[in-house]
Specification:
This protein has 255 residues and is of the alpha/beta class. The protein has 8 helices and 9 strands. The longest helix is centred in the middle third of the chain and has 25 residues. The radius of gyration is 19 Å and the shape is globular.
């Protein structure tokens, strides 16, 4: 009983403390060649940024010139830097050809969600354009990691929760979770400069009770993409330094 109580108290502290919360979330992915400033990315606090790693162009003249741009084009999401599967159970349950097919669907879905989030944000500073123009800023995104959620892993995580306490698998179950990692940048084609670059990674979120995403290979990825879209829309339309919080480490709902 003591172990169960201590585990539950630890999980509650993760929910309430932003710094501890990230201990239960996915670790940052190694930067890919997609980002020009990947080596300069800095870790962010969870109570101020939704993304694990960020870089901002600090040159005053570049920032001032970019502020005059009011149009933004969301480019198709790149899969050129997508890495092989690393989770053993994902590799057992999912064929690579199937993963590539689903990755293309997720890339299309991601672009649609980012466009929708930016368009629906009240008083957005950007006017979205369907085609890139000479002076429009460009939002460029890449999916760099995708491990489908293994159904057998979801069952195992559920058993861990039943044996210990709800959510206990968040401490030991990281190898049993599907994960998704994305990189993005806002690029100014006139100045030929990146203005903002970020990287984030999320895994199938731990459920304190039960989640349908534990028993579906890709539904967790679509949920993460929807969250990323809303978060980035806020980041791009907020003053630098404004707080945009990270998503929680746990979920209470079935979905």
């Amino acid at each position: 009983m003591t172990v169960r109580v201590l585990t539950l108290l630890f999980l509650m502290s993760l929910c309430s403390c932003s710094s501890l919360q990230r201990l239960a979330k996915a670790a940052p992915a190694k930067p890919s060649a997609f980002l020009a400033h990947g080596a300069e990315l800095k870790k962010t606090p969870a109570d101020r940024s939704p993304f694990l790693l960020e870089w901002r162009n600090a040159a005053p003249e570049v920032r001032k010139a970019a502020e005059k741009r009011v149009t933004l084009h969301v480019a198709p999401v790149s899969l050129d830097y997508l890495r092989p599967m690393t989770q053993p159970l994902s590799r057992v349950e999912v064929r690579e050809r199937s993963r590539q097919r689903e990755a293309r669907k997720l890339a299309d879905y991601a672009r649609q969600q980012f466009i929708q989030a930016l368009r629906e944000l009240p008083q957005s500073r950007y006017q979205l354009v369907d085609e890139p123009t000479k002076d429009s800023l460009r939002l460029e995104l890449a999916l760099i990691e995708l491990n489908p959620n293994a159904i057998s892993a979801g069952v195992t995580r559920r058993v861990i929760n039943l044996i210990a306490v709800p959510g206990a698998e968040s401490i030991v179950g990281r190898p049993l979770k599907g994960n998704l990692a994305m990189e993005g940048r806002v690029y100014d084609p006139i100045q030929k400069q990146s203005l903002y670059e970020f990287s984030d990674a999320e895994h199938n979120r731990s459920a304190l009770i039960l989640s349908v995403h534990d028993y579906n290979p890709y539904s967790y990825a679509r949920k993460i993409i929807r969250e990323w879209a809303g978060q980035l829309a806020l980041v791009l339309n907020s003053p630098e330094g404004a707080k945009v919080k990270d998503s929680p480490a746990f979920t209470l709902g079935l979905w």
